[in-house]
Write a structure and sequence with these properties.
Elements: E1 3-8, H1 13-24, E2 31-38, E3 41-47, H2 53-60, E4 71-76, E5 91-92, E6 98-106, H3 109-118, H4 130-141, H5 146-154, E7 159-167, E8 174-179, E9 184-188, E10 191-195, E11 207-210, E12 215-220, E13 223-228, E14 237-239, H6 245-249, H7 256-262, H8 264-272, E15 276-277, E16 280-281, H9 290-295, E17 298-303, H10 305-322, E18 325-330, H11 331-334, E19 345-351, H12 357-368, E20 372-377, H13 383-387, E21 390-393, H14 406-426, H15 431-453, H16 455-465, E22 470-475, H17 479-494, E23 497-502, E24 519-524, H18 530-541, E25 546-552, E26 564-568, H19 577-594
Parallel strand pairs: 17-18, 17-19, 19-20, 20-21, 22-23, 22-24, 24-25, 25-26
Antiparallel strand pairs: 1-4, 1-10, 2-3, 2-4, 5-6, 6-7, 7-8, 8-12, 9-10, 9-11, 11-14, 12-13, 15-16
Helix pairs in contact: 3-4, 4-5, 8-14, 8-15, 10-14, 10-17, 14-15, 15-19, 16-19, 17-19
The chain binds 5-amino-5-deoxy-1-O-phosphono-D-mannitol (M6R).
Amino acid sequence: MCGIIGVVGSTDALPILLEGLERLEYRGYDSAGVALHTADGTWRARTASGTESVTALVAQCASAPPKTASGIGHTRWATHGAPGEHNAHPHVDCSGDVALIHNGIIENHHELAAQLTARGHVFTSVTDTEVLAHRIEEFLRDGLDLEAAVRATLNEVRGAFAIAVIRASEPDVIVAARRVSPLIIGTAEGQTFLASDVPAILDRADRFFVVDDDQICVLTPSGYRATDLSGAPTELTELVVDWDLEAAQKGGYDSFMIKEMHEQPDAIRATLLDRVHQGNIVFDELRITDEQLRQVDKVTLVACGSSYHTAMVAKYAIEQWARVSVEVDIASEFRYRNPVVDSTSLVIGVSQSGETIDTITALREAKSRGAMVVAVSNIVDSSMAREADAVLYTRAGLEICVVATKTVLAQIVALEMLALRLAQLRGTLSPSRIEELLGRLHEIPVLVEKTLASDDAVAVVVDQVKDTHDFFFLGRNVGYPTALEGALKLKEITYVHAEGYPAGELKHGPLALIEPGVVVIAMITNDELKEKLFANLAEVKSRGATVIAVAHENDADVAAVADFVLWVPATESLLSPLVDMVALQQFAYHLAHARGLNVDRPRNLAKTVTVE
Ligand code: M6R
């Protein structure tokens, strides 16, 4: 997730770009850069100073040419190519005529780069983005104008993009386009803007327009013109923006939590992008050979909090699909229990921040015993990513809310892709079954969107139980970590007592706590284990508990056991946490709301825990 901004027709473009980049830093800050249209060609500045990148860019721009009317800017969240100045945007073609910024992932960049290199292009970065600049250069050489060259290039590209392109010889023109990655255009008298997000240009533009998938826009000082990939004229949808800056930063939502919940479909799409080449699952950044992966005879996952729950989901998937034995441990426990791991073990640390001290020290412990150590992190170049032998990135974008939502789903997707890769290498699933499961995974973003759309129905259920003080979450198989995650979300933002249990374990003790006034929330999204769960629910109902089921749409049997139902779309049972957890996030969010609590500021908690 990167941030992009552009302006044409201003009296002084640079301050507009720099202020916009500061407001877009939440989308990434590994590096930053600008390119300005000047009378002498394109002027470019780029820096890579981590969290200080935009500040460093401001300093570097002290040597910028006098006021210019237009330019583009970028703040980077590295996916392909490590953070570093040579990988910072804008990228240029061989001649330096074209400068380009990009948010997204070009899936077929390997094959395009090979073709371009064979035709003599010289690459100066290891990003997926640079291929676009060189391919546009070729079309310009063939005589196309910038708009036509961008269109021709995008017709060859697979993946996600929001791009903005300038050319020294076409001043006061920016060509922008979008597929999947967000892009908006803003207009004001004599100036036109583009940005990834409204806050970047909130107080600059008077009107805002949303660019849709596969729309190309030509921005000039007098406005914009939109076409589709075939060149046919299209319209952009106007966005009514009556927000102040704080509301705009939350995308119009009332909290970062709900905003980030709505970013989950895109977080999943981004994490899936570019991972399947000709049927093979590939992780570019995972520096472990296929042979090493084949030889693994035990996997240990270590993590804390929500990341621990995603690790538990991964255990079910890896064991079921790849038939390797998996242990999951709370990182702070693993570290001090003299764990049995050696050079045949694969130890995976799961952490959105990559900075949680318990998980870092657990990985150090595993490494000191000779294990192969992998970090699953949402932050490029985090401490864990640097210290591990290999890394697997989730691509959820920066998560601001203390309560993890989109990074949780992105972790499950990344880990389940890894489980499928292990199965592929070990031959434990047939190619057709792997293809089927990959198809199912790619359907998940739409199912998450459907679940998010049932928000009002969740609020109605919450209203029935909003004064409850004791909640038990029950599940079997992956429904169990889902139950744990549901209980954790509730604890974090509503401060009520909530516990997650494997449903079969209830009668071994906790059943004593069930009485009228207690609410039991049960995951009934695994068809094979449904009857067992029904039996557990009969036990709690007969003791007076109120039962809320998370169940598949059209499951007629559920009405007999549940007082209320949170309906979710059906999917493969090992993928069901990706949908069920969304319903539980909604449940926790609405309960917090009903109790007048600020979900973005849970008491006593920090986003990243760097003390033991
Ligand atoms: O950054 P990490 O994934 O390592 O963080 C682990 C936990 O601290 C984190 O998941 C915590 O439980 C969240 N607040 C859950 O919403």
